[in-house]
Design brief:
Elements (H helix, E strand, L loop, with lengths): L6 H26 L5 H6 L6 H28 L1 H32 L5 H8 L3 H10 L4 H19 L3 H16 L4 H24 L8 H12 L17 H14 L4 H4 L11 H16 L4 H8 L4 E2 L2 E2 L5 H9 L2 H39 L7 H32 L5 H25 L5 H21 L13 H28 L1
Antiparallel strand pairs: 1-2
Helix pairs in contact: 1-9, 1-16, 3-4, 3-7, 3-9, 3-13, 3-14, 3-16, 4-11, 4-13, 5-6, 6-16, 7-8, 7-15, 7-16, 7-17, 7-18, 8-17, 9-16, 11-20, 15-16, 16-17, 18-19, 18-20, 19-20
Length: about 500
């Protein structure tokens, strides 16, 4: 089945997408003209306004997961999912953002870090540790796949075009223009995208007002009549929201650590002065709060699709939002909402492409093969820019292959696939960032061992589906696997820090 869009919706969607492409290319060309070196590509050379960077942060931190994928979990599993994804995770992540941003920026600016891997290497004076994190950042390709699948679902339904063609076209376009503009164009495109997303967030959240005609109790009664589990604070039908350990404890740990992703924590390096940080955080957090609430739309969708069927076929979790938009909104409201959903995906995708390609070029290729590049500085800069473009092209091919597999053979949702990779990355990054913020004279062995512990524990729990004592939770839930990994890595890190710091003090 293709989509359920009317001919008017299809025509209007095409017009809107072409306009979106034109505006995006305008900003890309504007940014590309100012991008002369790989440093310009990574952190830009414009004086960005703090409110613009704050909007860019909100747009890239919430993404297609919040607007397209996660509402599907809430449609399937109800209020337990909203408590987890819409309340606990946002509170923890935004608290962590406030706590970690200033310290990360202080060190990153002083050593001119362009990537997370460079920050790790300079902070702990270890080229090997920097290289380790550079390779580890390749796990973030899983998040790129999530966004690509989300965008494909929305566009395929809006345009009535087969998913494979939409997937290839979308990735070719976004990866193609990201070869040129980098941070200089990304902040501007992210700002426009965030403003569109704000309007769309209010449209989506207001779209179910009629379901509250008999008050909150009337709304809950509708959900209960579909499935009593939808209004429970836990849902044993899901391997994500079975008990409060998964819903609250796990999401607090994940929320605190989730900030340790390069496309999030390194946004603060785009600010030119420290006095801009507070404005940046205020704008970013207020905007994110609104964005995170969008997952509530999943409950509206469940009322519209009570049996999770559409046109006689099962409604896949990843397709819930796109089906809801096409079915519920008039054409010209619907296409604007589609634009917001596209913006939600593209904003984060741009940040991921920019950070992963910069890391691969500067922190893997340069240290390993830099001796083969020209000695002349100008020629060397041009060579690295060309290398970065080739890297992006390779990632585009990989993204198409992995995304197609997730469209055809998802494990419930592409969200699970993405969580496994992304959570493993920031589980490993959490301790070195945390220690770097708050501790002095940190023994290298403590953070290296902590990162290795996190990776081993995370994948052991996930692939072994290991149980957690005194709870229904197992490692099949990537959040559980990551929270166990983070706790274990903190434990190992603190023990080794105490032992080896005392030796240094003697």
């Amino acid at each position: 089945m293709l989509g359920v869009a009317s001919s008017e919706m299809i025509t209007a969607s095409w017009i809107l997408i072409l306009l979106y492409v034109a505006v995006t290319l305008f900003f890309v060309v504007r940014g590309a003209l100012k991008t002369k070196t790989i440093s310009d590509y990574a952190v830009g050379n414009f004086a960005f306004k703090p409110w613009a960077v704050g909007l860019a942060l909100a747009a890239s931190m919430t993404s297609a997961a919040t607007f397209i994928i996660n509402p599907g979990f809430i449609a399937y599993y109800g209020l337990s999912g909203f408590l987890s994804f819409g309340i606990v995770l946002p509170i923890a992540s935004m608290g962590s953002l406030i706590l970690l941003t200033k310290g990360f920026r202080k060190h990153g600016s002083s050593v001119k870090s362009l990537t997370m891997a460079q920050w790790m290497g300079s902070k702990y004076d270890s080229k090997g540790y920097s290289l380790f994190f550079a390779f580890l950042s390749l796990l973030l390709i899983t998040f790129i796949v999530l966004i690509a699948v989300g965008l494909t679902k929305v566009l395929a339904k809006s345009l009535n075009v087969p998913e494979i063609y939409v997937l290839i076209g979308t990735i070719a376009f976004i990866f193609g223009y990201m070869m040129f503009g980098g941070a200089n164009s990304m902040v501007y495109t992210n700002t426009v995208q965030a403003l569109i997303m704000l309007v769309v967030a209010f449209i989506l959240l207001g779209s179910g007002y009629q379901h509250f005609s008999n008050g909150i109790h009337g709304f809950l009664d509708k959900l209960q009549s579909i499935d009593p589990k939808l209004i429970q604070s836990t849902n044993d039908s899901s391997f994500l929201f079975r008990d409060y350990f998964e819903i609250i404890f796990t999401q607090i740990v994940i929320g605190i650590a989730i900030v340790c992703q390069p496309h999030i924590i390194t946004k603060s390096l785009l600010l030119k002065t420290d006095k801009d940080v507070n404005k940046y955080l205020v704008v970013g957090i207020i905007t994110q709060t609104i964005f995170f609430l969008v997952v509530f739309v999943g409950l509206y969708a469940r009322i519209i699709f009570p049996d999770l069927m559409i046109n006689g076929a099962p409604l896949k979790l990843d397709g819930v939002v796109s089906a809801y938009v096409v079915k519920e909104f008039p054409v010209y409201v619907g296409i604007f909402v589609v634009l917001g959903l596209i913006s939600a995906g593209v904003s984060t995708l741009e940040g991921l492409i920019q950070s992963i390609s910069s890391t691969t070029t500067m922190d893997i290729i340069k240290p390993l093969f830099g001796k083969y590049y020209p000695i002349n500085e100008e020629k060397r800069d041009k060579a690295y820019i060309l290398t970065n473009k080739i890297v992006i092209a390779v990632f585009a091919v990989v993204a198409i292959l992995l995304s197609y597999d997730q469209l055809v053979n998802p494990k419930l949702s592409v969200g699970i696939f993405a969580q496994n990779g992304v959570y493993a990355y920031f589980s490993a990054a959490f301790v070195p960032i945390l220690f770097g913020m708050f501790l002095k004279r940190i023994p290298k062995i403590s953070v290296i061992a902590a990162s290795l512990t996190a990776i081993i524990v995370h994948f052991s729990f996930y692939y072994g589906k290991l149980p957690v004592p005194f709870t229904k939770a197992t490692g099949e839930n990537p959040g559980v696997a990551a929270s166990m990994a983070i706790i274990a890595s903190v434990f190992v890190g603190l023990i080794l820090y105490t032992i080896f710091k005392e030796r240094e003090d003697v």
